[in-house]
Amino acid sequence: MDQIALTRIAEALERMSPAPLETPDFNAAAAFVWHVGPERLEPVEAVNRVDLNLLVGINRSRDTLLENTRRFAQGFAANNALLWGARGMGKSSLVKAVHGALAADHPELKLVELQREDLPSVARLLGHLRGSEHRFILFCDDLSFSHDDQHYKSLKAVLDGGIEGRPENVVFYATSNRRHLMPRDMIENERSSAINPSEAVEEKVSLSDRFGLWLGFHPCDQDEYLAMIEGYCAAYGVEVDAEKLRAEAVEWQATRGARSGRVAWQFFTDLAGRHGVALR
Length: 280
Prior knowledge:
The chain has helices at residues 3-16, 59-73, 91-103, 122-129, 151-159, 184-193, 197-209, 222-236, 242-256, 261-274, and strands at residues 31-35, 40-44, 81-85, 109-113, 135-140, 170-176, 213-217. 45% of the residues lie in helices and 14% in strands. The radius of gyration is 22 Å and the shape is globular.
């Protein structure tokens, strides 16, 4: 076999089994994104988030998650958290805002975003975080599973940690539109077709039970919707007649057929643009 063939074989083997990830410089940024193929922790220069004070109508969830995260940042015990409920009500915004509110006083607190599709690699990610002097919020947005999805088994490595246990410097926050992380019709179908209905779904449904905190997010009413917009106007210095603002905001949500924090922000983005205000 000639040297060229040997070189190609060596390169192919290297692609199949890449070199171990070097320990990243966690002081390079406050947040990172976990990528696979090749595996790496990519620093995020500026996190896309809003100020914690701008999240209106979710006070209880806000205060609970903030306190849990503060204890974790201080080195004390803290729970994994599942933020579940209505779309557009600030679940992922709250996670990022809480981290931003605490990062100034606790620079060792880092946010690491993990995609649901990359859950099978989470054990290796935990290996890189374990033993670091920093503390990590491992964040998975829009987490859910279908009937043939086996990724939920990988999630147990984060929540339970296997025989090693979850690293004490890692806490896991996830957002989902579903309280049990899977469609209700799938749960009912397994119950109806199994020999032992209760055991058929226990493994999957009990996954959500492994989160110490369940924070529910529910659709907002019109007063809360308007309060969100008024808060944005005050924060960014957009001055509009109160009656005009109310009429335009109500018309906007009527055309969207929904009310939520996301719809409120979309209306305000349009309003700020019309008033020549840049959102930074």
